[in-house]
Amino acid sequence: MGMKKYKPTTPTSRWTYGYDFSEITEKKPEKALTRTLKRTGGRNSYGRITARGRGGGHKRKYRIIDFKRNKYDVPAKVVSIEYDPNRTSRIAKLLYQDGEKRYIVSPMGLRVGDDLISGKNVEVKVGNCMPLENIPPGIPIYNIELNPGRGGVIARAAGNTCTIMAKEGEFAHVKMPSGEVRLVRLACFATIGQVGNIEHDALSLGKAGRSRYLGRRPLSRGVVKNPVDHPMGGGEGKSSGGRHPCSPWGMASKGLKTRKSKPSDRYIMRRRK
User: Fold this and answer.
1) What is the pTM of this model?
2) What is the extent of the structural domain holding 269?
3) What is the pLDDT of residues 91-150, one digit of tens each?
4) What is the secondary structure of 142-184 as a DSSP string?
5) Does residue 63 sit in the same domain as residue 196?
6) Domain closes at, from 153, 169, 201
7) In Å, how far from its chain's centre is CA 11?
8) Both 156 and 41 in a single domain?
């Protein structure tokens, strides 16, 4: 996996960094593992915009990803590494011994032809899936469940990884990518390794059009609007707003704690801040 810098033949390409897709082995997705993806344009069921700045974008097919890894003790072989337009990570297509095919989030270092397996007593190897109680502390893990059997929800984006700090009773102390330490039940499954495509942060779109391909519409800053349109608008010349940054409806957008008392607070051992 690597990044590609374009020759500065145009003002746009001068700043553009893209993927070289050297790790991709197959271009077309498995048809049976895709479904159509409906776009909302940021609108709810009443047709009103509830999420600004969304719309357009390239047409995509959604790849059905196996976050549960619940084919226990059935060996699988990696058939291909593929691009997924719906996520920052790459995906790997597995062919199980019984003939079934599934997509998983591809970890760093996974190659075509590798053998993977999921279960309680399997080898600690990149791509294998097992419960936290059988994973030694200090091993990088991703795609971690919060509720046993519900499927992985933690650390699925490009380059993400977590670490088991300690085990106590029926819980493991898991350090999140944000630095937060959280209690996760030992019965929850996780996958060994670090999510691939770790250079995703170096991506530079280079032009506004590439943002539109991703379904992101332009958004004006509050300080350049009129006072009637935004609390931070108005002022003579260039103004910094004259108040703390906020949304168009006056909700503070920096520093205000919005998390109320939640039942999951007791599972957070150390905050990310």
Assistant:
1) 0.91
2) 223-273
3) 999 999 999 999 999 999 999 999 999 999 999 999 999 999 999 999 999 999 999 999
4) ESEESSTTS-EEES-STT--EEEEEEETTEEEEE-TTS-EEEE
5) yes
6) 201
7) 31
8) yes
